[in-house]
Amino acid sequence: MTITRFHRRTLLGAGALSLTAFLAACSSDEPMTSEEPMEEEPMDEEPMDEEPMEDEPMEDEPMDAAGMSEGAFAGANDKSVSGMVTIDADTLSLTEFSSDEGPDLHLYLTSGDDEAAVTAGTELGKVAWDEAEQSFPLDGMDLSQVDHVVVHCDKAKAVFGSAPLS
Hints:
The chain is of the alpha+beta class. A five-stranded antiparallel sheet has the order 2-9-8-5-6. A four-stranded antiparallel sheet has the order 1-3-4-7, with no helix packed on it. The protein is built from two helices and nine strands.
């Protein structure tokens, strides 16, 4: 079979269109402009302590034995997610929550904050990107290995953001 210049252009155009549709699946409707200033946090100007650091590895700690844990959301993969998460007894609560809009956003309890952690994690259900206060029942789930709450777009298989629990 001979592939003509027309067929090559058609195939390249279809591939580009498919890639664009995939990348836009969970994007915000608000356009980004280069005129928007980036927010920078001021540097702490206090001198650092002169004490040597210990050689202990840093690890995420799972939820404490009393069942109370909390964390602050941060965006990932060029997405904006903010707010607080609190786990108390059998309820996970989101406060001051907001996220970039996505067509299929879900909340997950995970051990880590990447795609593999989401796949291995526990889905709590759909999360509304524009509702500041939301609650999810935990109904006796084992949270001993949970160290993150992740906002994930299931349609595009993309992590929007996460909150490390402490």
